[in-house]
Structure formats: C-alpha cells, structure tokens
C-alpha cells in the first residue's frame, strides 16, 4: 500500500472526478454552511475533481482551477467532461484522428463520459455521441494518484 494512502470518510479514492448534481450549488471557503460563500455554481453536470473530503463536505477543483468546498448532496458520481478550450471540438465516428466528424462539442460544453481507451474518449452531449482525444476534455484523464486510497 502506498504510504501516502489515507482512508477517506466516503471510502472512495481522493482525488476522483464527480459531477455537479444540483444547480445552483454553493461553493464555500471551508467545509460548513457557516463558512464564507465564495461563489455559486450554475452548471448542472459540471465536472469537478474531489481533492479532499470530510464526512459531509467535499473540496473540489473545477475546470477553471477554482478550489472550494461543496456539500456532498450536490454531487453525483457520474463522470462528465468539459471542453475548456475556446474552440469547438469535432466528435468523430471512431477513436482515430482520421475518423469522420459526426457532431461538434462547443467550447465550454459539458458531455457525459461513456468510456476511454488508448487516449480516446467516447462522449455524449445533447443526444449526439462521438470520440474525442482524451487530452481535449477536462475531467477525462485519470486523477493523479497517491493522494488517497484506491479500492482493490
């Protein structure tokens, strides 16, 4: 076992990706309703990375590198991704650079992550699906290891 491995209150690995289940969702400076409100998320499905947790609260990093605490009830274990670059992204019919474009994921659009393999991810947004390079989507990569415990 990794010596930096620490059990988490949820028993899930940290860091890990989750999605915002509720809109709006308060983001706070600390883990509790009595902490200062930093901002309010207004993007249901927004991918977030849990980087720390208490029994009721999760410290998350968002696609714009914001760091805040949110209550666990506003999060969902579903994996979503976001196109963070200012350009649109073609979704291809197969996981290859020479695939045929069959849909477009707009800049800052959120999509459901279906699967990833060999550097390509299949995503779905607004009833359209396709393959995109894993590096072109925030939330598609494996979270960095060593900061939490992974279940066997």
CATH architecture of the largest domain: Roll
Which residue ranges are poorly predicted, with pLDDT under 50 across at least 5 consecutive positions? 147-152
Number of helices: 0
* Number of distinct beta strands: 13
Strand proportion, as a percent range, falls in 35-45%
Q: What is the mean pLDDT?
A: 91
Gyration radius, in Å = 16 Å
Principal-axes shape call: elongated
Secondary-structure element sequence?
EEEEEEEEEEEEE
Major sheet details: 5 strands, antiparallel
The strands making up the biggest β-sheet line up spatially as: 6-5-4-1-7
Which fold name is given in CATH as the topology of the largest domain?
SH3 type barrels
SSE diagram, text form:
Blueprint: E1 16-20, E2 25-28, E3 37-41, E4 47-53, E5 57-61, E6 67-71, E7 75-76, E8 80-82, E9 89-92, E10 101-105, E11 110-117, E12 120-125, E13 128-133
Antiparallel strand pairs: 1-4, 1-7, 2-3, 4-5, 5-6, 8-11, 9-10, 11-12, 12-13
Explained architecture:
With 152 residues, the chain is mainly beta. The chain has strands at residues 16-20, 25-28, 37-41, 47-53, 57-61, 67-71, 75-76, 80-82, 89-92, 101-105, 110-117, 120-125, 128-133. The protein has a 5-stranded antiparallel β-sheet, with no helix packed on it.
Key traits:
about 0% helix; mainly beta; 4-stranded antiparallel beta sheet; SH3 type barrels; about 150 residues
Quick rundown:
This protein is mainly β and 152 residues long.
């Amino acid at each position: 076992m990794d010596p930096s491995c620490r059990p988490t209150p949820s028993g899930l690995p940290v860091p890990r990706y989750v999605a915002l289940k509720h809109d709006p969702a308060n983001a706070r400076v600390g883990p509790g309703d009595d902490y200062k409100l930093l901002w309010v998320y207004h993007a249901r499905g927004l991918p977030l990375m849990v980087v720390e947790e208490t029994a009721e609260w999760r410290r998350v990093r968002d696609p714009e590198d914001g760091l805040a605490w949110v209550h666990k009830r506003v999060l969902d274990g579903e994996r979503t991704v976001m196109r963070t670059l200012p350009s649109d992204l073609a979704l291809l019919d197969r996981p290859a650079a020479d695939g045929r474009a069959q849909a477009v994921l707009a800049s800052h659009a959120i999509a459901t992550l279906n699967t990833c393999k060999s550097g390509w991810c299949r995503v779905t947004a607004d009833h359209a699906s396709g393959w995109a390079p894993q590096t072109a989507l925030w939330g598609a990569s494996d979270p960095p290891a060593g900061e939490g415990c992974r279940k066997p």
